[in-house]
Design goal:
Blueprint (H helix, E strand, L loop, with lengths): L15 E5 L4 H12 L3 E6 L2 H11 L2 E4 L5 H15 L4 E4 L14 H29 L3 E6 L13 H21 L4 E8 L5 H6 L5 H9 L9 H12 L10 E4 L7
Parallel strand pairs: 1-2, 1-4, 2-3, 4-5, 5-6, 6-7
Helix pairs in contact: 1-8, 3-4, 4-5
Bound molecules: nicotinamide-adenine-dinucleotide.
């Protein structure tokens, strides 16, 4: 393959990128970097007010989509293809992490976590890959898993951990399936990242659990959305041209402790 000069290697001009859950937190951070790299970015979110506002701030498109709805997911890809012709990049970021011990959890609450974090990620990956197959453009998918894909970070997250363990194995198997289409599929496993979602969840998490979590981060700070966004850039550019089915832990060293 022709060697791309280093100054061009992070450029995404002419590429279209979908970012789910792009209205806040990690998704917004990734969308910002993709816009900066020159991609046409479509953010989607269940929160239409925040999504519309952020799309104006970043200069990108917004499509309202609930990842639990197959119809919304199909519409998201169709809208992006209609507007931009092709899609080359998918960031499966939308996710929820309700803090609730399994013994207190209802079947409906369990199903909602899986529907958004795992089933929705599958549905969108499928629709995206079909669009890429149609265009022949090739592409890159980045799934946002978690350090909980590998090791539980706290009691109270059994449903979440089951979904994120699923994201890890889906990433690997789907990478195998779509490699012949020129689609690379990788996962980022963030540690604790200071986002709107984490702040909201902290109301339900005992203070000592949060304190203990942070005390065990060797780099000594919360992650920021941009810590995840810069890794995502690596995974959607030729910096990682020969990487697929892999997982990248971005956690300040938390899993080492
Ligand atoms: N923040 C962390 O510490 C952390 C750590 C590991 C993994 N993650 C993962 O990173 C991803 C983003 O987390 P975050 O902290 O930025 O979350 P966040 O709550 O700050 O933002 C998530 C966004 O997703 C949207 N969303 C929620 N449900 C949706 C649905 N059904 N359909 C579409 N959009 C929906 C929300 O409206 C919000 O804009 C999640 O998958 C999460 O599991 C986060």
């Amino acid at each position: 393959m022709a060697k791309i000069p280093l100054v061009d290697i992070l450029r995404l001009d002419g590429k279209t990128a979908l970012v789910t859950g792009g209205a806040k937190g990690i998704g917004r951070g990734i969308a910002e970097r993709l816009v900066e790299a020159g991609a046409s970015v479509v953010i989607s979110d269940i929160d239409a007010e925040a999504g519309t506002r952020v799309s104006r701030e970043l200069g990108c498109d917004f499509v309202k989509a609930d990842m639990a709805s197959e119809e919304d997911v199909r519409n998201l890809v169709a809208t992006a293809v209609e507007k931009h012709g092709t899609v080359e990049i998918l960031i499966n970021n939308a996710g929820i992490y309700p803090f609730r011990p399994a013994l207190d959890m209802t079947a409906e609450e369990w199903d909602r976590v899986q529907a958004i974090n795992l089933r929705g990620l599958f549905l969108l990956s499928r629709e995206f890959a079909k669009a890429v197959r149609q265009s022949g453009s090739g592409g890159a998918i980045v799934n946002i898993g978690s350090i909980d894909s590998f090791h539980p970070s706290s009691v109270g997250l059994a449903a979440y951990d089951a979904s994120k363990g699923g994201v890890l194995m889906f990433t690997r198997n789907f990478a195998l399936e779509v490699a012949p289409l020129g689609i690379r599929v990788n996962m980022i496993a963030p540690g604790g990242v200071a986002t709107e979602g984490v702040t909201a969840a902290q109301g339900n998490i005992p203070e000592e659990v949060t304190r203990e979590f942070l005390a065990r981060v060797p780099l000594g700070r919360w992650g920021e959305p941009d810590d995840i966004a810069t890794m995502a850039l690596v995974l959607v550019t030729p910096l990682s041209a020969y990487v697929t089915g892999a997982s990248f832990i971005v956690d300040g060293g938390r899993l080492l402790t």
